[in-house]
Write a structure and sequence with these properties.
Blueprint: E1 2-7, E2 13-17, E3 27-35, H1 39-49, H2 53-59, H3 61-74, H4 76-88, E4 90-92, E5 96-104, E6 116-120, E7 130-134, E8 138-140, H5 147-150, H6 153-166, E9 173-177, H7 181-192, E10 196-201, H8 204-212, E11 217-220, H9 226-233, E12 239-244, H10 252-260, E13 261-269, H11 279-284, E14 288-291, H12 302-305, H13 320-333
Parallel strand pairs: 9-10, 9-12, 10-11, 12-13, 13-14
Antiparallel strand pairs: 1-2, 1-4, 3-5, 3-7, 5-6, 6-8
Helix pairs in contact: 3-4, 6-7, 6-13
């Protein structure tokens, strides 16, 4: 089968011929119909692997710390060997896809051969012709939703989890900082939740797109007093909640979130941004700051993601898998429009 891979050592991206995955317990085999390129996230991953070793070390200090600990425990030569082996590997790109189930592994619940499913997860929902995906990272596609639209489900689940953490109520004024794919989805989800929504981005075209997709107000983050415009839009009260969906090393989005919030407001960081939090404004307004963990409960838990142990619905209403389902239902009802977010389509060849 064909799959898009990036060589960690050289940084080169290629369409490679690799063996197709085989059936495993707790997984489904999916023949891909569409996979989503999230330009911000995937460009960052590709650019990182193209940097020098020093550049990667500066970008990922936590991995350097792990390597140093390993060197102390297992020796320098052993650690160097492990690092070199990692660099020789190719990494699969992509984390959000949709397709048709062709095989179902032992122990899989509620998914059958022939079902259309949305798939999530780095290393699972890759840009490849055939995927092997754990059952909790799949959700059946409702009638009327295309594979192209369903391929947005992972990103939709990330946006949805951020909205859930913000706990918006009907009529609240909510600010979205960063209007890339994640921000545009967040704007629509908040509108579906009955909120007034204001969007901010550096790109004027994204600002206009947010307006056309339902934002009640929007402005460019540069060249104007963004915090002042937001304050005016909120009738002088400040935003009830702020979702930071930008992607930047700068801490400016977090600073703006504090400046634009009302006293005792909520700030949820969904995107990967600088986290130098200005204590003074957050302290004086007693703001609640939360960092959202990707698709929702279950993320980074191997018992949930890899071994298929679901969380009891009565105790954990919204998991990764159930967030995927909820976003697909919103697509089916027409509450969210992703067609206008798609700018290019590429065959894998």
């Amino acid at each position: 089968m064909k799959q898009i891979l990036q060589n960690r050592k050289t940084g080169e991206v290629e369409v490679a011929d690799v063996p197709a995955p085989t059936s495993q317990r707790g997984r489904v085999i999916v023949r891909t119909r569409a996979s989503l390129i999230s330009a911000g996230t995937e460009r960052a991953a590709v650019d990182l692997n193209r940097k020098s070793l020093l550049g990667r070390a500066l970008e990922q200090p936590e991995l350097v710390k792990k390597a140093l600990v390993r060197a102390r425990e297992e020796g320098l030569l052993s650690t160097v060997g492990v690092v070199r082996a990692k660099l020789e590997e190719s990494v699969a790109l992509g984390y959000s896809a949709a397709g048709v189930v062709s095989e179902v592994g032992e122990g899989v619940r509620d998914i059958r051969v022939g079902d259309g499913v949305a798939c999530a997860g780095v290393g699972y929902a890759s840009h490849a012709e055939v995927l092997s995906v754990p059952q909790n990272l799949c959700a059946r596609i409702p009638e009327g939703v295309t594979f192209n639209d369903a391929a947005y489900a992972t990103l939709g689940a990330i946006a949805l989890q951020g909205v859930r953490l913000a706990q918006p109520t009907l009529g609240e004024s909510v600010l979205v900082v960063g209007l890339g794919l994640l921000g545009q989805l967040t704007v629509q989800l908040l509108k579906a939740n009955g909120c007034r929504v204001f969007g901010v981005d550096l790109d004027a075209s994204r600002v206009e797109l947010a307006r056309s997709l339902g934002a009640d107000g929007a402005c460019a983050a540069e060249g104007a007093d963004a915090a002042g415009k937001i304050l005016e839009w909120t009738r002088g009260r400040g935003a009830d909640a702020v979702l930071v969906t930008a992607a930047t090393t700068s801490s400016r989005p977090v600073e703006l979130a504090g400046e634009a919030s009302r006293a005792k407001g909520r700030v949820v960081v969904v995107g990967q941004v600088g986290m130098e939090v200005p204590r003074d404004v957050y302290f004086k307004r007693e703001l609640q700051l939360t960092v959202s963990m990707s698709y929702g409960p279950g993320r980074y838990d191997p018992e949930y993601e890899e071994r298929g142990h679901d969380y009891p619905l009565a105790h954990v209403r919204w998991t990764e898998g159930r967030n995927l389902e909820a976003f697909l239902e919103l697509l089916a009802s027409g509450s969210v429009n992703v067609e206008r977010l798609t700018t290019h389509r590429f065959p894998v060849e």
